[in-house]
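Question: does this match?
>
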Amino acid sequence: MPLISVVIPVYGNATDLRGLHARLSAAAASIAPLESEFVFVDDGSADESFEVLAALAAEDRRVRVLGLSRNFGSNAAILAGLGQANGDAVMTLAADLQDPPELMPELVRAWSGGGQVVLAARRKREDPLPGKLLASVFNRLFRLLVFPQFPKGGFDLVLLDRVVVDTILAMPERNSYLFGQVL
């Protein structure tokens, strides 16, 4: 039976993690009989995120937890999670719940239909104004200078086939924009 891994970079999300886990569990139940695992990567959080994740791992065999020694950024955390994910397909999801875990079945259907890279583009951002502005400028520049088809609102929610994950992990780059490599 295929395994779907979900990699979640975590930074200061202690209060959201139990709710996220509940929503991920419900989404995973909706793709049964496929199996799932949740790879949480604590990116040096200063709050109780790692302790909450350790408790979730003790309660749910699907939960795996990696703890980074300090904050390296979500790109590095996702890359670390990809290296630990065992799935035939790997989905990335931000822990802040701006991207709904409930999209998992739709992404899995597209993957099952042959998609090797399945992304969910954002329509709007819930970030504070400075974050929205920075993201907007970055996405606009990325479309202008690098990849014209890059989604206007960007994306954090993507499902990658194992072939794509293995290709990313084989790349020597460690400080590049991971989602840019995906496209």
Q: What stands out?
A: Strands lie at 3-10, 35-42, 63-67, 89-92, 117-120, 157-161.
